[in-house]
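Sample pair:
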Amino acid sequence: MKATSSLEYVCEEDFYLSPPPRDLISLVSSALDGDSIALERLSTFLLPIIKKIVCLWNRSYYKPMGMYIIDEDDDVQNALIRLLYGDRLAKGDYASHTSPLCEWVNYEGRRKSFFKYAQYNILKYVRDLRRAERPILMGENLPDPADDTPSPETLTHHKRCISDCLASLSPAHRDVLNRKSILNQTQSQMAQDIEVAETTISRWLSKAIVCFKECLTMNCPDALSTVKF
């Protein structure tokens, strides 16, 4: 009955809500428990969501870098399988691995939207697939595995992504983030300079970091490791 109720009431918009609706949590839980009807329904919702994320990463990351384009059919299916089953299919051990969605279902605090949580895992899986299957730029030889130094093209792309994500923030959020990362100001110093309460600075800064990281995760996840807060 739990899956049947969820099937009746879950809609596409529910996947983008935070906190997520109870019916969506119930549907995901039923699918992970092996309910075939719930699993089929969840997969129907997930395929276009995953494809949207993969297409965006192709357009924003792989094409500008001149890299092999992610297959928007096969890799979408791979990402769906890994999202639902973890890496157990690749390992061949069906008992020791579980879906990353179990953490989302069982989380006791305020959950992120399903889309935000799935987005992080999908990008991680697709990134790992590319590194394993197509680790080179078109027309180039295999790089030395021990050489982790980013190429000039990669650094240029990272800088452009960081600049674009900073530009997407509101003026207040961008200002406090620049003051922290560039001027190394404390929240107290920012509050004094801008003439607002320190609690306001704290709220702006927290929101700015979240929005900035979400932008990089969506458009250029490899650049995240180059940013320190």
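The first helix runs from residue 2 to 9.
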